[in-house]
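Quick note —
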Amino acid sequence: KAGGAVHALIGNHEAMNLYGDLRYVSAGEFEAFRDAGSEKARDELYKIEEKQHPDRKRWDAEHPLGFAEHRRAFGREGKYGKWIRAHNTVIRIDGTLFLHGGISPKLAGWSVRQINEKVREELGDFAKLEGGIVQNENGPLWYRGLAQGNEKALEDHLRKVLFNYKIERVAIGHTFTDGAIKPRFDGKVLQIDVGLSRFFDEKGRMACLVIEQGKPCALHRGKKVNLPWNSEGDLRRYLKETGDLDREARSAESPKK
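Predicted structure written out below.
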């Protein structure tokens, strides 16, 4: 209504669901796809795989009700399969580059368009995954160097990234920050995976990055907090502010005795 837009980007978990790496899919996710036809759908799937898996009891344990529908939904013509493949992996908005994992030295010279087209190509033809960038630890969905690597050692690399993409900063997810927006490289890299999922905290970690008129800040528990820059003292200030907001929120949410 305000004239904005939502840009959903592909991350490693979306890609994994597409190409069938289901190690992080929970029982609840399969259950969410279960319906009145799930028994029949599972029987039909087993008929296809019966020769490779003669132990039906074990196969059923590994393929709960809802599994067949889940795989169909994430398939090439499935509701989520088509939806995810239509999205980008990396996007540049004003002076910020957004992506899930990060830009590694392997991709420092690539364009936004090259990365997006390459990921879509591989997710459209799984035979191209081997040797590609979707599953590569230095690819845009998995690279953790900007989040965990030595800042001094990566200074030149980051400088090339900023120059090549004509940006001021990179905003990344993938690597959990334990509850607060985390700047690195003097704010040129912003880690924004604060753990919103209940997997990390049953009440959620309520924080996100806000950039207004080119200036980034944290929106933490609904309050704007200036990000720390270039000093240990300012970092302590930031961690105290966000920590105090977390404690206040938890105290307010706790049942009164």
